Amino acid sequence: MADRDGPDGPDERWKTAIRAVIPLFGFIMCRSFIPTTMSLTLDSPVIRNAPTIPPSSSTGKLPALGWNTWNAYRCNISEEKILAAGQQFVDLGLQRAGYEYVNIDDCWSAKSGRDPNTKRIVPDSAKFPNGIDQVASKIHDLGLKIGIYSDAGTKTCAGYPGSLGNEFTDASTFADWGIDYLKYDNCNVPHNWTDKRPPNNDWYYSYSAIRFRQMTAALANQSRPIQYDLCIWGDARVWEWGAKVGHSWRITPDSTPTWDFILDAITTNVDILNRVDFYSHNDMDMMEIGNGKLTLQEERTHFAAWAFMKSPILLGTDLGNLSQVQLGILQNPEILAFHQDAMYGQPAMPFKNAGSLKTSPPEYYSGQSVKGLHVFVINLGDRSSEKSINFTSVPGLGYNSSGLVLVHDMWTGQDIGLYRDSYNFSMEAHDTAAFALHLPSVTFPVQETIRSSSRTLLSQIRTPEAITAGT
Ligand code: GAL
């Protein structure tokens, strides 16, 4: 059958017309989308005018240690609850252990908006009848520090006034009130601040980073140092530029009291641990210890992993509900000392322990502190299992195969004993073991070590004499 329309029939004319229109359509699309993406260069006005001031070096050297209202109370906060938490820091020994920050999260302000004259955010008068400054001064009287929360968008995540465009007003309000720490969230970002591909793929020049940089500059303009946490949930490759903007930055979604969350946070952090050092901390989010569901071993891992990765540790429960065992975990002096070490800023890093499986996240980590070399081992398994630290695998230990290693348990504060080649031990499901390893000098008091060890461990101890005799 002959072609119904022929070469110049209506079908062909349509096709010709469409072919002519396509480039025009493409041009319009390009005008509206691609040039905005392509046009982000270092010369773009938003980028050119963005502040480059670094965060304060008078605070934030070490990862924060404290408490935050959100996981415990959500929006149901008040002056009483915050002051009670401060008092509990003192009464429960948390302050003595090093906990310092009492932080107010979302929902502290009047939802209706700012003061029409001063443009300042106004505290909710039912929750804070005496204002935030009064609470701050009572927290300071306890020898503690106080934190507050705002957002690099038009509203906070719970819908209260945000600080975007009001950074200087809000930073000066916080400073006037005596605030020491700001958690700055990332909700309700207006359309014109949506991220576009930054020049040279350097996310310090992304619109996200610039929203947070505006607050860095505003905080720098205040007479008191304010520690600055970027609550950006790992967006915009924050670990690449966070240290130029703040002291710590969230790398995870919101915490939940589940083993899965703990594992995910550790797994995420493992890949970016080289970003962690003094003034520079990947924030794995607030603690869930005390919020049910986790086993004792999972709580130990939650605390120990946050500590050896040098994440901020902000407790997130009603402190009055913590058991003695939970308080014991949270106040463990040796693990907290590793976290707060003023000489060594780097976290423990994963290492390949000979004979162990390759897992995700890794199970074996080592790191340095003023006390020496530490090894942390996580049992990822769902049942108890045997672990072995192979001394020649431990980076920095400098193990010489003819020598002995003194193994010290950081959880109990006790020396376990002297071992050659490796230390084998059994672990409960989901637990974390924490050790200090020392190469004792010739004069090391072996008998003392043996005496201070527990009965069960005594059987594992092999003295140098026994080792030499091959028994
Ligand atoms: C989330 C943040 C939480 C909490 C909450 C308050 O974005 O990750 O930690 O601050 O907002 O609305």
TrEMBL record:
SUPFAM superfamilies: (Trans)glycosidases (SSF51445), Glycosyl hydrolase domain (SSF51011). It catalyses: Hydrolysis of terminal, non-reducing alpha-D-galactose residues in alpha-D-galactosides, including galactose oligosaccharides, galactomannans and galactolipids. GO terms for biological process: carbohydrate metabolic process. Its EC number is 3.2.1.22. Keywords: Disulfide bond, Glycoprotein, Glycosidase, Hydrolase, Secreted, Signal. Belongs to the glycosyl hydrolase 27 family. This is Alpha-galactosidase.
